[in-house]
Amino acid sequence: MSSKPSVPRPRSRLRVWFEQHLHGLAFSLGRAVRKPWATALTVAVMGVALALPLGLSIVMDNLRHFAGSVQQSREINLFLKLQVDTAAAERLAATLRGRGDVAGVEVRTPAQALEQFRQDSGLGEALDALGENPLPTLLIVTPAGDDDARLVAALRALPEADLVQHDALWRQRLDNWLRFGQRVVQVLAVLLGLGALLVVGNTVRLDIQSRREEIGVLQLLGASDGFIRRPFLYLGIWYGLGAGLVALGLLGAAGLALAGPLAELSASYGSRFALKGLDALHSGMVLVGTVLLGWLGAWLVTGHFLRQTRPTET
Question: Quick one: 230 and 270 in the same domain?
Fold first, then answer.
């Protein structure tokens, strides 16, 4: 008894769709690898263009962090009159801590202030020759809100107050410069991102031009625009992924080059400030953004080309 030949089961539409995308992914990667110099140049130009706004954004974030970490930028120094003793200063500090616009109050006695001045100035023998401590009690007040002027006015009106030091002008100027710098970073990000978009678009356009006849044959055979466009979209994705890796590599190298000199500079000012780069989450977001940028550039160019070359019905 003869057995009937087995009929192969038809592949599912999902499997066909997956195989087409896998083929487009591998085919586009192969075309990029077969042109190493052109691919490397495109990826390098995009990477440098993307690294510039990212680097400036990191610098601005570090400056903002540094400005916020310097506690003296918010503190108000309240020098009390000489006749105010430590007990009265502690009572005044407790009263001030109860205000809603005060985040904290530190009491620094004349003895503590003299010892700190002795350590900072190195004039121990000269200070010992004075015989008595000429420094007053100091209250270091940290504001809780953004309106420091009202708090400063209230501190100056205290009967125990002798002098109130609070330089808010330079801090306002610093905030204005930081906001201006952030806007500059945003403008540069848009301009350089547009430049990277044009670079990947032009590269994909050249690849499309080299395959014009092949695309024309596929269109005559009835291939859909999605089928023709797919390998070029993946090519743009590969460019974007490579550019993102180059940008992250450049930022990492720049951070390593600046870490040593920055540590020495911070140590000279008695600070432990260290440069903070991109963490894993933000690095992943950068890669996703560059991939989308490469995909968008390829999508715009291929869409324009297909609209121009679509055969007309007779």
Answer: yes
179/283 same-domain check? yes
> Do 99 and 129 belong to one domain?
yes
Residue 144 domain boundaries: 82-159
pLDDT in tens, 7-59: 555 666 677 666 766 776 777 777 778 888 888 888 888 888 888 888 888 88
Assess whether 176 and 272 both reside in one domain: yes
Whether the full predicted model's pTM is greater than 0.90, yes or no, is: no
195 and 57 share one domain: yes
Q: What's the structural domain count of the chain?
A: 2
Residue bearing the bigger pLDDT, 5 or 232: 232
pLDDT at 5 over 60: no
Residues 188, 54 share a domain: yes
Which residues, 6 or more positions from 266, have their beta carbon under 8 angstroms from its beta carbon?
A: 272, 273, 274
Q: Which of 153-162, 215-224, 275-284 has the highest mean pLDDT?
A: 153-162
Domain boundary among the residues 125, 159, 193 is at 159
